[in-house]
Amino acid sequence: ALAASGGGMAGPCSLPVLLLLLPGLAAGPAGMLQPRDTPSRERKELGGLWSFRADLSPGRDAGFAQRWYRRPLRQTGPVIDMPVPASFNDITQDPSLENYIGWVWYEKEVLLPPRWLQGDPAPRVVLRFGSAHYYSIVWVNGVQVVEHEGGHLPFEADISSVLQASPGSLCRITLALNNTLSPHTLPPGSIQYMSDKSRYPKNYFVQNIRFDFFNYAGIHRPVVLYTTPAAYIDDITVTTTSSDSAALVQYQVSVVGSTANSLSLSLRDQEGKVVATGDGPAGELKVLNPNLWWPYLMHENPGYLYSLEVKMQAQVGRALLEDVYTLPVGIRTVHVTSTQFLINGRPFYFHGVNKHEDADIRGKGLDWPLIVKDFNLLRWLGANSFRTSHYPYAEEIMDLCDAYGIVVIDESPGVGIKLPESFGNKSLQHHLAVMEELVRRDKNRPSVVMWSVANEPASELPPAAHYFKTVIAHTKALDPSRPVTFVTDANYALDRGAPYVDVICVNSYFSWYHDPGHLEVIPLQLTAQFENWYKTYQKPIIQSEYGADAVPGLHSDPPMMFSEEYQQALLREYHSVFDKKRKEYVIGELIWNFADFMTNQDTKRVLGNKKGIFTRQRQPKAAAFVLRDRYWKIANESSCLPPVITSHSLFL
């Protein structure tokens, strides 16, 4: 798997061989509903301190050879406390763990409520990981229950039979996690062994990557145990259409464990009033005078969500079981023309950011104070959107996007696809599986208006045509209701994937990576970029990345690279072109980046990437105020609200 560069010791080729030869399990169930407490379901969160041990053996395989999963991890050797959720890299003072590549082991012992193990039939007990990077194998009480490849999407296992076969109510959860990246993982990477014994220790290797952010590893999102009845609601799919006076909510519900005796649905507004009802596994609900889901700053009540309660009753043996699940539903439509992006029939202009799940100490670990702070900064900024660069973000973040009206371009982990071998059938099949997981997780979210299947791939290579044609067609088949794109930095005349996207998303760094220091070239080069892309494809364009590094507190007038003044000046040059082209076919601008973030150590990086308009600690640089003034001005120009909207009236 793809990972941050770091030195380590291992036997020749042992890491990739060990990773790739592990037996795979069958794909998970069709449904992956987010765990929720309901009258028929309970959750037990397993955050906090877990036991942790990195496998420091030469081949990184001692844990498997000695079967560490068969007994408590503390009995296998030294363990340390490791917080979950968090990346393990920055938690200790051990530099070898900061850059560790290979297998690490986590363990948590949990006492289960006796009621979870009783009844005829007993409840179904499910173990779910929000994400763990990159390759996971999970055991419960020494029994393997699930494997999963991929570091940014949830996976789960029904562990009921394992618990029923174990004496008592103790549940010992063991996770083996490998952060190695190969040319066929997503994102891709490669292990490079250094054979020159005069320069490197024996068996020394590094993880090479082709993306510019630190490849943090660990259990990054919540781990939960949850219950359902033995017969249960497995999946719900909703799509919506609307007119001036009514809306239709089409639904499909799948049930597992028995044929449902009855299946009823109730749609409630935010006051709890039932506005529509239905029954059966498929149908539609008609909502009169609906409250539509609007983006932030397009409506005085953005992010309006209904609650869809699905109730199932099923006979299992002599027991009549009932399962209840409630799904937030936003009523909105998305449509793309040759020059516009329409939400609920109105033109929408993306004025937003690119982000990372990244912060001091915790790395990519989910952190509620940081999440809430970021959303307050987004709304202070006047941002109405972001792209989940360069991987799917946590469900908890997506929940707030739905609730606050923040529009999302939902991106897969397809970053760093540069080598020809990463366009082969093995990589393609995994990419298709990842898109299935992503669509399954986020298909019902009103905030998600477009899928992005990749970022800056080598889309000029010949195999990229078949690769992206296949991935995009597969994604559209999974979800016909949303446009699909990928983000390119290739030449418009050479890009072999662009013919298949609905919206052109292009990254460019004029006067930074190209003609560094020459701000005067931006108007000509950026104008030519837009005109060439539009003339070739006749599709709307989003400037999906642009920006410059700025070291906070570094000042220069006239502006010099890496100063706050240069970052400001570069943004203003780009904005002058945006303002001309957004009257035609440019439908959005996303700054790179919302906040500074960590990268591999490099001569071009001083403690990470400094292109944030906020520091890594979320303090504003001068450019944040430039962007804030611009975004609120755009919001007031395009909003249906009175022009009295201010940057204080809608986010406090």
UniProtKB/TrEMBL annotation:
Task of the protein: Plays an important role in the degradation of dermatan and keratan sulfates.
UniProt cross-references to NCBIfam families, sorted A to Z: PRK10150.1 (NF007538)
GO molecular function annotation: beta-glucuronidase activity; carbohydrate binding
Name of encoding gene: Gusb
Activity regulation info: Inhibited by L-aspartic acid.
Record keyword Protein biosynthesis present: no
Reactions performed catalytically: a beta-D-glucuronoside + H2O = D-glucuronate + an alcohol
Coiled coil: none
Keyword Glycosyltransferase among UniProt keywords: no
Enzyme Commission no: 3.2.1.31
Cellular-component GO terms for this entry: extracellular space; lysosome
Record protein name field: Beta-glucuronidase
Main location: other
Family from the record: Belongs to the glycosyl hydrolase 2 family.
Residues in Glycosyl hydrolases family 2 sugar binding domain copies: 46-229
Pfam families linked: Glyco_hydro_2, Glyco_hydro_2_C, Glyco_hydro_2_N
Domain Glycoside hydrolase family 2 immunoglobulin-like beta-sandwich: 231-332
